Amino acid sequence: MNNNPIYINGIGNVSPQKMVMNGNLSGFLAEPDVYDNNQLRCIDPGYRDFIPAELIRRMGRIIKMGVAASKLCLRDAATGLDSTTEIIPEAIITGTGLGCMEDTEKFLASMINNKEEFLTPTSFIQSTHNTVAGQIALLLKCHGYNFTFVHRGVSFESALLDAMTQMQLEEFSNVLVGGTDELTTNYFAITSRLGYWKRKPIRSLDLLQDNQRGTVAGEGAAFLFLENKKNAHTYASLSAVTTFLKPSSGDEIKQRLTDFLSDNGLTLQDIDLALLGLNGDPRGDRVYHEMAGTALQETPLAYFKHLCGEYHTASAFACAVGAMSIKTQSVPDVIRLSGNPARLNKVLIYNHFRENNHSFILLSRP
Amino acid sequence: MSKKVFITGIGIICAIGNNVEETLKSLLAGKSGIGEITRFNTVHKGIIPMAEVKLSTPELLTELGHADSDSFTRTALLGMKAAKEALKMAGIQNTKEYKTGLISATTVGGMDRSEGFYASYLADPGSGRLRDVINHDCGDSTERIAHELDISDFVTTISTACSSSVNAMMFGSNLIKTGQLDRVVVGGTDSTTRFTLNGFNTLMILDKTGCHPFDDNRAGLTLGEGAAYLVLESEDVVRKEQKKVLAEVSGYGNANDAYHQTASSPEGTGAFLAMSKAIAMSGLLPADIDYINVHGTGTQNNDLSEGIAVERLFGEHVPPFSSTKGFTGHTLGAAGAVEAVISILSLQNQVIFPNLGFTTPMKELRITPVTVSSQRGVETHCDVETHCNASLLRHVLSNSFGFGGNNSSVVISMNNDQ
Q: Which residue of A178, A217, A245, B218 is surrounded by the most CB atoms within 10 Å?
């Protein structure tokens, strides 16, 4: 077992924002994409560049998003190795809150409409939660470890924890880890009835200025290539991750944060930027405001869900943004909330999903 | 840092028993749990058999002492029942004395209720009871179980199709080894649903005559339902609490077949790699494996691919093996944990449970499964503490393979230290 640093050496981020291609961070979030219907969907990355044409037609959208993001990530990582051959990771670990919703809905609908007869298997096969991780392995011919976590708002964090644990146990020297979730029309309609989303459409960039209940819906596929070696292309190091369920109070969260930092030899003063999961829902945002007013009072703050919307693995998007900020040593204007960090040595991501699943992720300057 | 991972409690509910004792009794009696579909209405009723848990959902609610039927899916209830039994067997009353986690696996999650919701919703987007769909996601059953057991330090869910709960055992073991947890409840739960029944039916891999693993005339699997959990504890906790150890998780491996989304490769690449990794981690040689609880679903493809991988890995010395899916059906996300529990019962009782449904050897293989209950040693209920060294069953390999090329194997061993 070791406690050597784990580096983020590649990023692939398919999201409602324009992709960063070839590790070129110069225009990173400089001209943010804006949405006005409370549904933030991924920009089509040009799937033909990532997936064999004959497969694209049958693949569910989340699978395409996931495969494209993973390929983008591995290509990005390859630039750091000056390698032209595709990297085959030792392990592929993904997180998804809801898995392949579109195919699940498709199979359910055909089962119901056709009264259980004359059904075809494609959507059933693709509805399996580990389809994205399986397809990535299949296309890469990667026989390594392949896991999928499906635990609500900490699905991606669980994947990170698994990757870090096994790198510490020296099982792997590199891991491709990612978070994927898709926003379907039916999911949006059903969760609208549950009151998840703001009733009146808002401009996505005005997310925190709107005081209606609920938030805006999003989706995304973000992958990180983790490695035990640093190179010139390294973005950041992934220092620590922790998750917890239903904290009883703001004090418990503060205590958990202090413990989390001290386990990593840090105090609150060491945090240069806190990237918060604020989503504009007055109820859910209370805990962030409480933290901002107490434990994080001195810490420069940023937010990200006006760029990607709310979904179970939004923290994967946050990790990509956090790691890119560390690499450029600058906070994009569009995510800035308060304060102006002099340097970005330590970035804390604090996110919760519907006040139920909470997580801290710590990124460091490599 | 804990070098070893000990199993101190097990719990199960499946088609052949509502708990460990009943399950063992059925296994010893050679009694299958496969029968006609009764839990839901389907056009396949009376045509395709299933292995259902004998307790209805209201009976499960009553047994668990929950009046509020709206809050629980059948998947959650099955999981709660088995996980509670495991914790009780481990003698754990307070889950807060040590850093304790729950890692649960499921493939259907709350589909048993959301498929009903979806029918109403399709007819009219404004209709359908929302309380039937809020428990849809896989994390729901896990959090219900966590709440029932009062576990909050670390809670997560794994879904890698039919290998899911072996993977929960692997991840839990790694968290114990690195000292991130002292104790962890690992396993899986899945209820039968119309969704899975029709899904597997479209693949034409449901045998109308029941489950016949490794038989030349096999025509598919039989879906089952159930849940099983194991309590894993670190060396330190076992020593401090002077715990009785049931067995040890001595090795595990996961590999991807990377051949096809649902079919296994003809050479059984993923299966071979997973078994090899598991045996290597346990520090054993293939010749040390005394019994394999094979995945053995009864599909043409799985049994051939798995059989070839077993022959490749073990060469001339293939240990006795059997698939216990003829008893329990294929419990999908729960299967790995169900079969881990059965493997532990094999070790404890020094019995290899028979591969029900087998009559004709497969043409392509030279190996055949154990078909009659094979008892090792002399005593029916071998005392782990005194007889383990003398026993013939010391190391069991259990396989679970799933869609997405996901292959997992675990080695469960008698604990020699006690």
A: A178
